[in-house]
Design the sequence.
């Protein structure tokens, strides 16, 4: 009986492995979900929809963007961490839910380093620091002077607690010994609208939502948060050029999958995303929306996320930054 049981178990395992391999060879057989843990119109949402156009053709099935906003991106990211790892659910998320919130939150409902699998680093973009026209300033110096002279008078917007748009301004406040009240929003589009309407006075947000309003004269763009001037926004100085040498806060966007997703499918998805990001037409569309396309291997993204954790952990802890 023992020998029969062993033979049966071995045969069952072989069949299961063969079935799984066949399923992976024929993946995908139905539409694939791309969960974006932010609202429609947010930067990751725009990025996902641009990439999806060419990615769907490459994998032979539609890709459906599902917006799952909430808790600064934590809610949607958590949902994917607990999704069925069958290759039909992927995540396109950003800095905070994938790295920074592991430092900021004591009881995060998921661990991005254990419950998710890296797929590809998709793109980066410099944040743009912008102020409402009502502030009456046209330079970083004027903006910071106004904050210092009027502590507590101004509100600033972000895309959520712990987001790079939140942490970047908190670092600016710490460096300049100034104060403003943080007001989080579900998306960069909503945050920019708040500046235009006067609900908040400033923010450092992705250019895809800031620059159309700046060009229309509805707010004033002052500087980028990248270390060097952006080729996509050469007219804007860096914060370093404006007298803040230690501030560098750049949003990045990455594809992830639930832990347990077959490695063959992860590697296939990574290769297809990289190919789309190299496509000239896609690159043109991304750059028009102020994205710098990247594309990486899963291993490259894993290394990058660990580097981000090492870089930001002491910064966040030294500044005493915490979610509101």
Sequence:
């Amino acid at each position: 009986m023992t020998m029969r049981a062993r033979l049966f178990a071995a045969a069952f395992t072989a069949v299961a492995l063969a079935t799984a391999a066949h399923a992976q060879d024929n993946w995908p057989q139905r539409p694939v979900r791309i969960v974006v843990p932010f609202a429609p119109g947010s930067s990751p949402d725009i990025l996902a929809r641009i990439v999806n156009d060419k990615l769907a053709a490459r994998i032979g099935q539609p890709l459906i963007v599902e917006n799952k906003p909430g808790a600064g991106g934590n809610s949607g990211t958590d949902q994917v961490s607990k999704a069925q790892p069958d290759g039909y659910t992927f995540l396109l998320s950003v800095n905070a839910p994938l790295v920074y919130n592991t430092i900021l939150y004591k009881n995060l409902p998921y661990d991005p380093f254990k419950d998710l699998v890296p797929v590809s680093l998709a793109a980066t973009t410099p944040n743009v620091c912008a102020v409402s026209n009502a502030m009456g300033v046209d330079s970083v110096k004027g903006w910071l002077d106004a904050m210092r002279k009027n502590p507590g008078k101004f509100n600033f917007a972000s895309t959520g607690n712990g987001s790079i748009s939140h942490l970047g301004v908190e670092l600016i406040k710490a460096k300049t010994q100034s104060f403003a009240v943080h007001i989080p929003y579900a998306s960069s589009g909503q945050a920019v609208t708040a500046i235009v309407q006067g609900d908040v006075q400033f923010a450092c947000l992705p250019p895809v939502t800031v620059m159309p309003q700046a060009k229309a004269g509805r707010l004033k763009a002052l500087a980028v948060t990248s270390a060097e001037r952006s080729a996509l926004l050469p007219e804007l100085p860096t914060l370093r050029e404006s007298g803040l040498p230690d501030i560098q806060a750049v949003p990045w966007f990455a594809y992830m999958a639930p832990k347990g997703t077959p490695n063959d499918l992860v590697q296939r998805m990574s290769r297809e995303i990289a190919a789309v990001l190299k496509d000239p037409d896609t690159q043109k569309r991304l750059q028009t929306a102020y994205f710098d396309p990247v594309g990486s291997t899963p291993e490259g993204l894993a290394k990058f996320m660990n580097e981000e954790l090492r870089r930001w952990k002491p910064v966040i802890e030294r500044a005493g930054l915490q979610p509101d």
